[in-house]
Design a protein that fits this description.
The chain is an alpha/beta fold. The protein has a single domain, classed as CobE/GbiG C-terminal domain (Nucleotidyltransferase, domain 5), CATH 3.30.420.180. It contains 5 helices and 5 strands, in the order E-H-E-H-E-H-H-H-E-E.
Length: about 140
C-alpha cells in the first residue's frame, strides 16, 4: 500500500491502549500485523504513546524498548480533547478519555496523519488497541 503522506524518512508514532496486565506479545503481535497489513515497517517507529495511567504498564514499556522508541504519556484530559474517528464511551468511563490509541498517536505527532486507525488485538480484542500516526510531510519530527 502506498502512503503519499510518507517520505523516505518517515517517523511513525504508535498509540497504545491496553488493559492492565496485558502481555507484551499481545501488543507486539497486534502492532506487527497492523503494520504489515498497511505496508509499513516497525523500523520507522520512533515513539510509543499512551495515557499517563498506563505509563508504567510493563508490556507498553517493553514495546517501546523493543522498538528502540521513546515512550511518551499524556494526561487523560489532554487526550479527551483530541478528535478521533473511533471514540469509545466504555474507554471514556474506564480511563477518562474516549480514545487512548488514536488520541495518543495524534497528540505525539502534534497534528499528524492517522495512518492506521484503532486496531484491536485479534486474539483478545479487549486487551489492547494500537493506532499509528505520522507527521505530515514537512512537519516537525517527533
Amino acid at each position: 500500500m502506498d502512503h503519499p503522506v510518507l517520505s523516505g524518512n518517515a517517523r511513525l508514532v504508535v498509540g497504545v491502549g491496553a488493559s492492565r496486565g496485558v502481555a507484551y506479545a499481545e501488543i507486539d503481535e497486534t502492532l506487527r500485523a497492523a503494520l504489515a497489513d498497511a505496508g509499513l515497517s516497525a523500523a520507522a517507529v520512533v515513539t510509543v504513546a499512551t495515557v499517563a495511567a498506563k505509563r508504567d504498564e510493563p508490556a507498553i514499556r517493553a514495546l517501546a524498548e523493543a522498538l528502540g522508541a521513546e515512550l511518551r504519556d499524556y494526561a487523560a484530559e489532554a487526550l479527551a480533547g483530541v478528535a478521533v474517528p473511533h471514540p469509545s464511551s466504555a474507554v471514556g468511563a474506564a480511563v477518562g478519555t474516549p480514545s487512548v490509541a488514536e488520541a495518543a498517536a495524534l497528540t505525539a505527532t502534534r497534528g499528524g496523519e492517522l495512518l492506521i486507525a484503532k486496531t484491536r488485538s485479534r486474539r483478545h480484542p479487549s486487551m489492547c488497541t494500537i493506532a499509528v500516526a505520522c507527521h505530515r510531510v514537512g512537519g516537525n519530527p517527533t
